[in-house]
Design goal:
Layout: H1 2-10, E1 16-20, H2 25-36, E2 40-45, H3 48-58, E3 64-68, H4 74-87, E4 93-96, H5 111-137, E5 146-151, H6 165-185, E6 190-197, H7 203-211, H8 215-222, H9 231-242, E7 253-256, H10 260-263
Parallel strand pairs: 1-2, 1-4, 2-3, 4-5, 5-6, 6-7
Helix pairs in contact: 2-9, 4-5, 5-6
Length: 264
């Protein structure tokens, strides 16, 4: 009976998922969890070497396919949607994780870098959702809606910039986009939620720490949990949002930060 309730609430076996930027950092933690949970997982990324290596590593646990696309390009966003449609007639879970990070002094932020970051962190998720709506709606129902999970950031919730002006603004806008899409798409049986991770192992986090001297130890000291996030933390949250347990939740922005924001 205990096993049955866990299966009923949290099983993702047989679901189809796409994780953008799914071969590195937080994206790799998420894609690994979804494969191990029994999903048929597609991961997109720019680096064929990194993507195929990650997919091969996950083959021992289940189905993972790498598709190479640079989502900074609107044309490549459309190409990814077409590519995915060749592999699957429907999509149950979309994790918009691909993104970039930059932190510079106020006077050094360039127009080009601002636009590039806003493009990948905000425009790309919107365009990809547009392009994938037919697949997301193909098998969605009121009882089992399709799920869009946007990966935001506590940088989009906290007032301190730490020099990450464009990054923080892009993630705050992604949180708002999540709310707006949740309102518009629930009637089409698609839930939209966002996770705002705190400090997890990733290239972006490493860049954040490199940009600000002593920030890593400073942040660690401010996290009530006393540690940075793990695969189980982010993966477990994704499982909840994508499973029956999370079917009634849409429009939420969840800070997954070990209590950092609450203690600030």
């Amino acid at each position: 009976m205990v096993a049955d309730i866990y299966h009923e609430l949290f099983s993702l076996k047989g679901k189809t998922a796409l994780v953008t930027g799914g071969a590195k950092g937080v994206g790799a933690l998420i894609s690994t969890t979804l494969v191990r949970a029994g999903c048929r997982v597609f991961i997109s990324g720019r680096s064929r070497e990194a993507g195929e290596r990650h997919a091969e590593q996950l083959a021992a646990y289940g189905s993972c396919t790498f598709v190479q696309h640079d989502l900074a390009s609107a044309e490549q966003v459309q190409a990814l949607a077409l590519d995915l449609a060749q592999h699957s007639a429907s999509l149950d879970i979309l994790v918009n994780n691909a993104g970039t990070f930059n932190a510079e002094p106020l006077g050094s932020v360039s127009e080009q870098r601002w636009d590039e970051l806003m493009g990948l962190n905000l425009r790309t998720p919107f365009l990809l959702i547009q392009a994938l709506l037919p697949l997301l709606g193909a098998q969605a129902s009121n009882a089992d809606p399709a799920r869009i999970i946007n990966i935001g950031s506590i940088g989009g919730l906290m007032p301190q910039s730490n020099g990450a002006y464009a990054y923080g603004c892009s993630k705050a806008a992604l949180h708002q986009l999540t709310r707006m899409l949740a309102s518009d798409l629930r009637g089409r049986h698609i839930n939209v939620n966002a996770i705002a991770p705190g400090y997890f192992p990733s290239d972006m986090t490493a860049g954040f720490f490199d940009a600000v001297p002593n920030l890593e130890q400073t942040m660690l000291g401010k996290i009530p949990a006393g540690r940075f996030g793990s695969q189980e933390d982010i993966g477990g949250m994704v499982i909840f949002l994508a499973s029956r347990a999370g079917a009634y939740l849409t429009g939420s922005i969840t800070a997954l930060d070990g209590g950092f924001l609450g203690a600030a």
